[in-house]
Amino acid sequence: MLWRASATAISRPPVAASTQPVGILRRLRQSWSKDGEGGGQIYRYDMDAYRRGFVNAREVSPCQLNGTVPADIKGTYFRNGHGKFQIGEDLVLHPFDGDGMVAAITFSNGRAYFRSQYVKTKGYVKEQKEGRICFRGVFGTAKRGGWLRSFLDLRVKNVANTGVLWWNRKLLALWEQGRPYALDPISLSTLRESSLNGLLKRGGVMAAHYKIDPKTNCLVAFGCQIRPVSSKVSVWEFDPSFKLLKQRSFRMPGLAFLHDFAITDNYYLFIQPPLSLHPLPWLLGKCGIGQALSFHPDRPARLYIVPRNREQQRQPHTTTGGRRWLGWASCVWMALGVWMAKGKRRERADGIRCVDLDPFFIFHFANAYEEENGNLVIDIDRSERYTFDLTLRTASNPHPIPKHTPIWLFDQVEKKIPKIELFRYRITTSGSGRPLAYDKRPLLKRFTEFPVINPANVGQRYRYVYGLAGGDPSESAPLQGILKLDVETKEASYWFPDAHEFCGEPCFIPRKTSPRETHPYHSSDPPPSSATQPPLLKAGARRNGRRSSGLFYSASVSPAVPTLTHRRLVERGRGGREQGQGSGYGHGEEEDEGYLLSLLFNGKNMTSEVVLFDAQFTSSGPIARLPLPSFVPHGLHGAFCPNADFAMTQASGGEVMSEHYSRAEWRRVLGFAWLYITSLAKAAPLPH
């Protein structure tokens, strides 16, 4: 099915598309092996074009994009990421230190509406007012005046640049070590720093990753705080109204670098990489705390299996956090305590089971689930060492990056990032009195990151994982192409854009295939009425040349448009299986029945596009490309929220606004009451 998307729309290209290989001998050597064994096609990338994705972006007011998209896509895609890389004359030295910019695309009736805004944190407002960097960055960004200006100044700016959460019709911008910021979901203006109704005291943190349990329709989130001798981890479960249902806290000895986690029906799963903190350079102001971490290849990574059924019900005054910085003396004690505790392990008496794994560093989980025999299956993106030990200015770097130079400008910095690969760990939990054991195997050896799955399979057995892939199968390269992997057959397929184009994290959008299905993610509302849904086709009708296995919705098909050449690759592992065949998930529909959405950055023309893929045929290229009014830098994490279905209407002068702009509730933007859009009371229009 093809969808018109302005002059840049494309149709499905032929299988034998241009690949632009690098090195004939190397290409021949790689083409004979399966990708899961380290082989695969090589694609060219333009590193200069990639570097242009780290330039200050401008904010964009709500506007309608040219072109059309499938009419069954309804909702809003929110994405967060670093958007500011220079403040006055001061340079941000690492993208993770850049202020967050949230972009949003609302889909309604086959149209798309875009807007973007910076998250106006307290630190952002102060630095913009003074026209200089006022805070030290976690990953090396420094204030003016040398290390003496940073001596014992351990304040860290909440950049709110990592993730987004839409829950109970509230939009939050997330960061690793701070409280979330509440945003207006239509204009994206910043409302306030949120304590989650008093759950997070000053200094409390909520991590940027969370899970939504498709069985219970509950939000599962966590936060991790470093304490003098150990790290405190708190896990919360919220119902669709944001009421706290469960809360559990426990400690990990030493430093716990926890960016992501996984859930199953009965467990929370955390992996603690073997890192330790060397606090003296950080305390003296000579580096960021992220640069003061050391990876220990002789120590194991540790898996924590935390039971979900040992929760503590929230008490009226239960809060987490507390003032993080109680003077420089307590900061010194905290850092030294963590350093002294490195490597210490103790047995758990709280029902938590621990498994020592091989040494590795991890950012992201793809998924995890429990097998029928109770064993755990955990799929993760992992690297052999700390991801930043060579790209940051650390003692372990034999060729350190010059001071005051952003890391993306350093020559061949992409080769200094450890190769990240997708692995599967199986944890044996059965057997009375037996110690837990594990085995591992690679699922994909191409450089990959940002794994995502169909949200209906979170914590459950699944088949497909999507993500970003580097152009070189044997070593690190800029994340550029779209990956789809069948974890059962190890069949991997890719779509790579032109050398100067780079895709961002993909987002899976399930296709609305049944009126009885309510996708639980990011939604607490009932399914839409049949009056607003596309026409229902009977089971057995043909779609894309294949007979459907059940009821599904379909929209009208736009005329075909001229084919453009795009690079395509399908690599098959053992038990090769054609993409798109039924997998027996859900109510008879296919697990990959849906769309993939990504923001594509063009470093040659300094433009960005929304690209949409049929998730069953990702290697065939986008089915729609919608140019954005301004470029969006390389980003981090996003989420598609089907119940964020704001009624966007086209106004005079080509501008777009929500119909709720004309309501008096807009005056109450500082409160959350107006966000319950479905229950807005009638009010007089605002005066012109």
Low-confidence stretches: 1-39, 311-319, 322-347, 514-588, 650-654, 657-688
What assembly state would you assign to the polypeptide chains in this entry? single chain
Largest sheet, described in full? 5 strands, antiparallel
Q: Quote the distance from N terminus to C terminus.
A: 45 Å
* % residues in beta strands: 25-35%
> What is the β-strand count?
41
Name the shape in a single word.
globular
- Our Rg estimate from Cα atoms comes to 24 Å
Average pLDDT rating:
76
Strand order of the largest sheet: 1-6-5-2-39
Count of discrete alpha- or pi-helical segments spanning 4 or more residues: 7
Tally the structural domains: 2
Structural class: mainly beta
In percent, how helical is the residue content? under 10%
Pfam family, one: RPE65
Cofactor: Fe(2+)
Protein name: Dioxygenase
GO biological process, one term: carotene catabolic process
List keywords for this structure.
mainly beta, 2 domains, 5-stranded antiparallel beta sheet, 32% strand, metal-binding, carotenoid dioxygenase activity, oxidoreductase, iron
Account of the protein in words:
The chain has 2 domains: 24-60 and 73-124 and 134-142 and 155-511 and 521-642, no CATH class; 652-688, no CATH class. The chain is built from 7 helices and 41 strands. The chain has a 5-stranded antiparallel sheet, with no helix packed on it. The two termini are 45 Å apart.
